[in-house]
Design brief:
39% helix, 36 strands, 49 helices, alpha+beta, 10-stranded antiparallel beta sheet, 5-stranded mixed beta sheet, single chain
């Protein structure tokens, strides 16, 4: 060993050595370690404006304290980490500020002293000390140095005390001189420089200042070596030491050597360059600067020379910018095609500015825009556009238009007429259709049908010489060809006699191709035929078959296959569709069978060529909204959802009052967007509520289920991100959930007709997809193209073309409808031009149900982003996944579907085992979802009518004149062909006049202008009839806003009422689902308002059963409520008693109400205490079931309110003529009519000349009856109870049954409307109709209307028998008797003054219960009066 004084190494080398000596057990640093803040560039911490000392005080000291802590408080076990995000980053940070910024090492050393001590403890190499480059020995300093040259044997007791000397405490040269070398010194790793390159001029020395390099450089004799900072100083195996050898694998060193070999890349940073490369780069930069400097001088000299002269290009630019030239782009484009230079272009522009030159060519976009304006606005606007904007002229546009006119059918359509329309309408796109075929045999097409209301006006068609505007049903009864004056006279005679009718609407059929190509998928009309709305389903089926046969006859040429018949919810066409598409079951030989037979519950009925029918999906959405606006609502899982319940839940989830008011606005029931808004608001309602009201919670769950159904029904048509498989899944889920709910609730869920239309819509989507997989397996399928949306789009364009005059006759419709196809084609190609009516626009949704911005107002195939390729679809898998999806969300349907699956012949359209349209509808199964509001009558305005009629006649004359000119042009154009010439004039009297003018004059006083409102025109309402102003959609407040909430009745509150069962009154518990004041929905009703006649309350019955310990752990109550099968009633407010029951505390989801028997008995007594006879007649009747009347555990019926004779007598009246008195059972309306009718016919005391009431026999002016149309498409007339007044005999009967004499109901004496009297006049009883005509209208008209009062011999004979037996007691026909109810006397109401005796008056249980009944003022008075009587 060599002894010597140690020398102090500098701080940076010591810290570097300690970091390199850390063992591998020290973890790598991550982003979350304390030292990770030093990972980045140290320059980020630098502030050039500060000197070194200021930088330490303001920045560096604080940064080190935050990372290492104060003094020794830092936890070094968590701070010491290896890697760039640990100590290496810290080392780089310190080196930068010591070397670059000159911060004193002593400052860092003092701050890091604790860290360095901890690093020494963890260092692997604490003994070897690297010497200078001249030595290669390792020097050890023992604890006790030897005294002789011979080293003694090591002492075992002192071996462990040997410690390594800190190699950083000595300078290499002073330490190793004279030392004994036992191994050769390490010379480092020698760098080889290629060619003439030398270390001094090519090595990148500047790199040491930029990066922390693990080596030092030394040169000797022109050779450069790099020595590792971890060099041991000794070589191994005549090589350098291990750390130096490892430098050969260092990435940075490899990069230096590569650049020495290949040269430095021009984009490399400057530290990578050696001195020689830097010198060369500076020379290149100087050369480049000189080049650009000289070029700039040359360009400046050229520009200076050109600044004095104005170039031709500049002159051209100035001419263009002047704005004097219209369509300058076309001028330049034409000039460039003619290869003109700047001077030639300038000459063209100047000539165009002076008006001497106009470009004659137009781009396709300009042509299409001009055609669009021409078709929508007419010739005059197109001519204005041509003259003002230099757009194409009308004659040019006619040559560019390729859509031929549609030929309307004057009578019953023929196959040949439709075939010609099909060929002409498809002629211009046949090449496109054939080009889209690919490997497919056919393109699929939907045959769409719809009606459009028309003016009842007869017109003459100049091209065919036929009358137009006659209904096709009866057109065969007169000549339709206009040959002479007699043809016109005979036609109007037949109209006046009712043999034929003017067409009130036109049936339009159109083809809709299922394709992505915007050139062919717009609707193309092929049929226009007049209709008088008297056609049966079978007759309409013949029209459909004619159109279908005509389309199929062109299949070889057009390559189109009809796969679906589509329409809206029109009932007549629905029955016709059934005849065509439910002929048989799908054959096993059909290629569709393999795809569809495995789909459980799918109905497989088809027509010829596996044809199916369809209902438009937008109409289905609208009908669901219309249904939810009705008071009947829908029943979901035993709970009835009414409009008031919907409003209540919309308010609870934060929707604004204005938004809710708009959702329930009934004025426009065809608003598609409003329908979507309501359906979406329902499916976004939360399932969880903070309310504790059991009724509110039950409604929340029912609404959530309804929302799931609506979501699966709507979402596949609006979410453009869905794949075809996902669309089928959603439709399957909607079908399974609807089927389960309909099987559970029947027509109370949704009307049967709406359910049928929904299932037909889903079935058709599945069938059309399967047909596409068979005919074009590599194609695409867009279910949004199903339905009649494209035909509705044509109608929308047609209404835009018509303008303010929204009424068209058949001829006008035919002339304009052809243009709608061309407009639709143009808008399909340029969708950004269009902004369709807002109420026809549906939003585009993302998967998260968020509305997406779409420039097109209709969802087009081009906007669909999901995968709709048929090859990626598995119908069976998607259908099953849809069922699994809905079963997971609504587990209650699982047993329902399993039961249906095991029932024979059950499918989506046969939930009961029989096709629903083969089963007669129940009398109350009325489809209230159809969107045709009933018209109201009001005062006409003759002056306006006259003025409008004159304007209409003028317009028609102009159109006829233009039509004659157009017909002449068409004949001239077709002269070379074989064509029948049509004579345009007819001999009237002794002069020839135009046929159209003659027809106009003849029909001048026969025309009644229809309403310009489309919904009114559908019902043939006259133009100047206005509906009464309505605000039914805006619930009004029933009492001042400051009312105490405890004194209000609101939606979902529990109530008590009475029901009649087995001629007895029973207590009933219910939940409010609707409140009305004077027929208008309200949010709440004050308790003091309930007794008013204008207040009505709808409620749903609740079941009541004895409570057990699990229901009420405290055993304070002995009754609890539960959900019974849904049954709702509407009663006057006087029959309703508010109640405040106790809520359960042991429930897990929806709580229930708890009652005490004494309170319920008192409630029963209080409700019936003050009932009047008229109120007794308003009590609903309900047959005994297992849920009502309420039963105790022993089976006895509880809470009887009244079984006195007064109740039975409330339904009995007395005949005002019979003596002795004959009782009339008012519950048997038909028998009452027969008895009173017999008096009118055979009682000598009643004069046939003085009309009397057919119920109470008072003079008719005292009793007035008015009629109204019932609900539903096939509803008949009925008595309008709201408008009728005066009669003392309140009897309900079926008007339809009573109006026809039959063996079970021979009397036909009902009020009927006089066809001559104003509609505001009351109806007249049939038995006095003859006297009414004689007195009011004279004998001349009596013979024409005698059929209204003439009675058959059968009716007279039967009424004679009734007169003879009039004193016999009326026997009521009753249903099969139930077992008699055993009444519980302990739970029977004891009404003071009727049933109480002195032994029960002061019962200890009765008085406290009575005082706790209610806080309603009426009951408070009742309470005082009752207690007073009992104490007396």
């Amino acid at each position: 060993p060599v002894s010597g004084a140690p020398v102090v190494r500098d701080f940076l080398e010591t810290l570097q050595h300690l970091i390199r000596s850390l063992p591998d057990t020290v973890a790598e640093a991550s982003d979350y370690d304390d030292l990770a803040i030093f990972e980045g560039n140290p320059e980020d911490f630098d502030d050039p404006s500060l000197n070194a000392d200021e930088l330490w005080e303001t920045v560096l000291n604080q940064c080190l304290k935050s990372a290492l802590g104060w003094g020794t408080e830092g936890d070094m076990d968590t701070i010491i980490r290896r890697g760039r995000k640990g100590l290496d980053g810290l080392m780089n940070f310190i080196r930068y500020f010591v070397i670059k910024r000159g911060v004193s090492e002593a400052l860092f050393e003092g701050k890091l002293s604790h860290l360095m001590k901890e690093l020494e403890k963890r260092s692997l190499d604490r003994r070897p000390i690297p010497v200078s480059e001249h030595g290669a020995e390792a020097i050890f300093q023992l604890s006790e140095p030897p005294t002789s040259s011979l080293a003694p044997e090591p002492n075992p007791t002192t071996c462990d005390e040997v410690e390594a000397i800190d190699v950083d405490a000595f300078e290499y040269e002073d330490t190793v001189k004279g030392a004994k070398r036992s191994a050769p010194a390490c010379n480092g790793y020698a760098l080889v420089f290629p060619g003439q390159k030398t270390p001094y001029s090519h090595y990148p020395f500047a790199l040491h200042d930029t990066l922390v390099l693990p080596w030092e450089v030394k040169t000797k004799n022109g050779t450069m070596s790099v020595v590792s900072t971890s060099c041991t100083g000794f070589s191994t195996n005549d090589k350098s030491c291990q750390p130096c050898q490892q430098l050969s694998r260092n990435g940075t060193l490899e990069g230096i050597l590569k650049r020495l070999e290949e040269g430095v890349h021009g984009n490399s940073s400057l530290p990578w360059y050696g001195f020689n490369e830097l010198h060369e780069k500076i020379r290149q930069k100087n050369r480049q600067i000189e080049f650009y400097r000289l070029r700039g001088l040359n360009q400046a000299k050229k520009l200076l020379g050109k600044a004095a002269a104005l170039s031709e290009q500049k002159r051209l630019l100035m001419a263009i910018s002047s704005g004097d030239v219209h369509r300058v782009d076309r001028v330049i484009s034409i000039g460039l095609r003619q290869k003109k230079g700047a001077r030639g272009l300038l000459a063209s522009v100047m000539a165009a500015a002076q008006g001497f030159y106009r470009p004659k060519s137009f781009t396709e976009e300009e042509d299409m825009r001009a055609i669009l304006i021409w078709r929508l606005s007419g010739n005059r606007v197109a001519e204005i556009n041509h003259r003002s904007q230099h757009a194409p002229s009308v004659s040019y546009l006619r040559s560019r238009s390729t859509i031929p006119p549609i030929v309307p059918s004057p009578g019953k359509p023929t196959k040949e007429e439709v075939r010609k329309n099909v060929e002409s309408i498809l002629q211009s796109v046949l090449e496109v259709i054939h080009g889209r075929l690919g490997l497919a045999k056919f393109l699929h097409v939907v045959l769409m049908f719809d009606e459009l209301a028309t003016e009842k006006r007869i017109r003459w068609d100049q091209l065919t010489n036929f009358f137009l505007g006659i209904c096709r049903q009866h057109a065969h009864k007169t000549s339709l060809e206009f040959i002479n004056e007699d043809d016109m006279v005979e036609l109007f005679r037949a109209i006046d006699d009712g043999e034929v009718h003017c067409a009130a609407e036109a049936t339009v059929a159109a083809l809709g191709i299922l394709s992505r190509d915007h050139r062919i998928y717009p609707g193309r009309p092929v049929l226009i035929s007049g209709d008088c709305k008297r056609e049966t389903g079978e007759e309409h089926a013949e029209i459909i078959q004619t159109v279908l046969s005509a389309v199929n006859s062109t299949q070889e040429k057009t390559k189109l296959r009809v796969v679906s018949l589509a329409s809206d919810g029109e009932t007549r066409r629905g029955s016709a569709f059934i005849l065509h598409t439910f002929k048989r079951q799908l054959s096993m030989e059909s290629p569709l069978y393999v795809y569809l037979a495995c789909l459980v519950f799918l109905n497989l009925h088809v027509g010829d060529d596996d044809l199916t029918c369809d209902k438009d999906w937008k109409h289905v959405f609208k009908r669901f909204r219309n249904l939810l606006l009705r008071l009947r609502g829908v029943v979901i899982n035993g709970f009835r959802i009414t409009p008031d319940i919907l409003r209540d839940h919309f308010r609870s989830c934060g929707l604004s009052a204005d938004h809710i008011r708009s959702l329930f606005n009934p004025d426009d029931q065809q608003d598609v967007k409003m329908a979507f808004d309501m359906l979406k608001d329902i499916w976004t309602l939360p399932r969880i509520s903070t309310s504790s009201n059991p009724g509110f919670l039950a409604a929340t769950e029912a609404l959530w289920i309804l929302g799931k159904f609506l979501y699966h029904m709507v979402f596949p048509y609006l979410c453009v991100d869905l794949s075809l498989s996902e669309q089928i899944e959603h439709l399957s889920a909607a079908a399974h959930l609807a089927m389960a709910l309909y099987s559970q609730e029947g027509k109370d869920f949704i009307p049967t007709n709406l359910y049928i239309d929904l299932m037909i819509m889903i079935k058709n989507a599945i069938f059309c997809t399967a047909k596409a997989k068979v005919d074009n397996p590599d194609g695409e399928m867009f279910i949004i193209l199903l339905g009649t949306d494209r035909l509705e789009e044509l109608f929308g364009i047609l209404r835009t073309m018509v303008g303010n005059d929204a009424n068209l006759d058949i001829l006008q419709l035919a002339s304009r409808l052809a243009g709608t196809t061309e407009i639709s084609n143009i808008l399909a190609k340029y969708p950004h031009w269009d902004r369709a009516p807002r109420r026809l626009k549906l939003p585009v949704l993302s998967r998260e149900s968020k509305e997406l911005h779409d420039r097109s107002d209709h969802i087009k195939p081009a906007s669909w982003r999901g995968n709709v390729k048929l090859k990626d679809l598995s119908l069976q898998t998607s259908w099953k996944r849809g069922r699994q999806l809905v079963e997971k969300d609504c587990s209650f349907i699982i047993p329902i579907l399993h039961k249906l699956e095991n029932t024979p012949n059950v499918d989506m359209l046969s939930p009961l085992g029989v096709l629903l349209f083969d089963v007669p509808l129940a009398e109350d199964d009325i489809d209230e979802s159809l969107e045709f509001p009933a018209p109201e009558s009001s005062t006409n305005t003759p002056s306006n009518a006259t003025m409008s009629t004159t304007a209409t006649e003028t317009r028609i004359e102009v159109e006829d004149a233009l039509g004659e000119l157009a017909a002449g042009d068409a004949i001239a154009a077709d002269a070379p062909q074989t064509r029948v010439l049509v004579e345009s004039k007819v001999l009237i009297g002794s002069s020839f006049i135009s046929k159209s003018r003659a027809l106009s004059r003849f029909s001048k006083y026969r025309v009644t202008a229809s309403s310009t409102d489309r919904l009114r025109r559908v019902q043939a309402v006259e133009r100047y009839v206005q509906n009464k102003a309505t605000s039914a959609h805006e619930p009004r407040a029933s009492s001042p806003p400051a009312m105490d909430e405890a004194q209000m009745l609101v939606i979902s509150d529990p109530v008590t009422t009475v029901l009649s069962s087995e001629s007895k009154l029973w207590l009933c518990i219910g939940e409010v689902n609707s409140l009305k004041i004077d027929g208008q929905s309200v949010d709440y009703v004050g308790f003091d308002m309930l007794a008013e006649r204008t207040v009505s309350v709808s409620y749903q019955m609740l079941g009541l059963r004895p409570a057990i310990t699990d229901d009420d752990p405290e055993l304070k109550h002995d009754w609890r409520t539960y959900r019974m099968p849904e049954r709702s009633f509407t009663v006057p407010g006087a029959l309703i008693g508010p109640v405040n029951p106790t809520l359960s505390s042991s429930h897990t989801d929806v709580p229930w109400y708890l009652f005490e028997s004494s309170v319920l008995v008192a409630l029963a007594a209080s409700l019936t205490q003050e009932l009047t006879v008229s109120q007794l007649k308003s009590i609903p009747k309900f047959g005994p079931t297992r849920d009502f009347p309420y039963l105790e555990a022993s089976g006895r019926a509880c809470f009887l309110c009244d079984d006195s004779a007064e109740l039975a007598e409330s339904a009995i009246s007395h005949c005002p003529k019979c003596s002795p008195t004959v009782d009339l059972d008012l519950s048997q309306g038909q028998r009452v009519l027969e008895h009173i009718g017999a008096h009118i016919l055979f009682d000598s005391t009643i004069s046939q000349s003085w009309p009397v009431c057919g119920l109470c026999l008072r003079p008719s002016p005292l009793c007035q009856f008015f009629l109204k149309k019932g609900k539903g498409a096939h509803a008949t007339l009925k008595i309008d109870d709201r408008s009728s007044k005066g009669c003392l005999m309140k009897v309900k009967y079926s008007y339809r049954v009573a109006a026809e004499s039959s063996p079970s109901s021979p009397c036909s004496n009902v009020p009927i409307q006089c066809p001559i009297c104003p509609k505001e006049e009351p109806a007249i009883w049939r038995y006095f109709f003859k006297a009414h005509f004689r007195d009011k209208h004279g004998a001349q008209l009596a013979s024409k209307y005698a059929h209204l009062w003439t009675l058959s011999n059968f009716e007279l004979d039967q009424m004679q028998k009734i007169w003879i037996k009039r004193r016999n007691k009326m026997v009521k026909r009753t249903k099969k008797k139930h077992l008699p109810l055993v009444i519980s006397e302990d739970h029977r109401a004891q009404i003071p003054g009727r049933y109480l005796n002195r032994n029960t008056l002061l019962s200890s249980d009765y008085l406290p219960a009575l005082t706790a009944v209610s806080s309603r003022p009426r009951y408070q008075k009742l309470q005082v009066a009752t207690v007073t009587r009992m104490r007396a």
